[in-house]
Amino acid sequence: MRILYINNDGGGFADYIDLPEGTSVQRLFDQHIRHGKPEDYLIRVNRQPVTCDQVLREGDRVTITPTKIEGAAQ
Amino acid sequence: MKHNRSMQLVRIASHVHATLSQNPHESAYSAKLDRLLVQTGAIARLARRLRICRARRWTATEAREQGILRRRLSDLDLAIRRLANDLELRGTPLPSPRTVYDDIRELEEEFGEVRLEAEDGCLSVATEPIVLEGVELGPFELRLNLDDLARGDASDALRAVALVPHPCATNDAVTHPHVSDERVCLGEGMAAFRGAAEAGRLADALQIARAVLRTYSSASPYCSLDAWDGRPCADCGCVCTDTENHWCERCAQDFCGECFTNCACCGSASCVGCLYTCPHCDERICSDCRSACRDCGRPACDLCTDDGVCLVCLEEPEQEKMDDEPIQVQIGGAEGGDTKEGEQLHDTPAVVAA
To answer: What is the value of pTM for the model shown?
Structure first.
């Protein structure tokens, strides 16, 4: 199945990716966010906040945004 | 009521979509392309001049031309990267009106209210009150300038306006450790913010900006939170908290512990700048404990004066007295020798007769 995956961590990423049927949000998170915990991120599927055990479906729009990002001084 | 709000959101989304669709950076892109062609022409001319210099062995001129070439190549590299970025933006499909509306809805759910400032073309949302390491910084209004976004200038499109400002003690413009003059230094969030903003994903962009405001990076703040509420020392400039600060009543200014001390005579507290150094004992003394010597007129502290006369002047008469006293000079051997009175020893050593 194909989903739109938007990762707002690090350099940012937004593209369609292929996943096996039955992939959960937790599995997607583990595959793409190597150094992080789900509780430190705002995870939305089709713009709605979800729990990690939600199973993704064809055409879903998944956004993962960190709740804390280190700023700097220019 | 809910229907009215939905209609407002539709109007906001429609305006946002129309602004982002204007694509005014088209002319900027053409200008950049023209400039790039001019730059490559200049480099071709430089290369020809270098060949001539080498053929005629004009080494000094060749070295100068090589320096110019290095600068031109650096400029060209920057121009190419900017143009490539613009090309990438042109290739990014604009979000549909429905996607923009969904983004506005998401923002409304996430932040509570979305506003469109018609005057300056800004889409704005307000954060919750931000508290970092116990320092209350208040809520911020995040403003996204849609015209800047349409120009492809995402990095300059964001402003964070403190709604209940609590700036740092040393700089009113710094309302957050990572905000100065309303500009947010996004740090690690910059790339993701630009990617989201330039693709028209406004909800993502503003959530990234909020995540930066919610985080304190002690490694690179405009002002450290440790010194947020402190006051600068009037002498050395270091920032101290209220408990570390000392108030000098003589000059009515704040000082740090290093620049504040006590008078060695009366013990009164004062800044170092308001105290004098006694030339006799080198202790720091206040003006009340300092007086001029009655004899020599030089300043001295109370501990170094007696009845208005400084220690030096007190010692001098004693020295003179000692000098005036006759010295008994032994005549003869070590034992039972006679002494003669009336001989003085001044600067010259005494003559001892055998």
So the answer is: 0.66
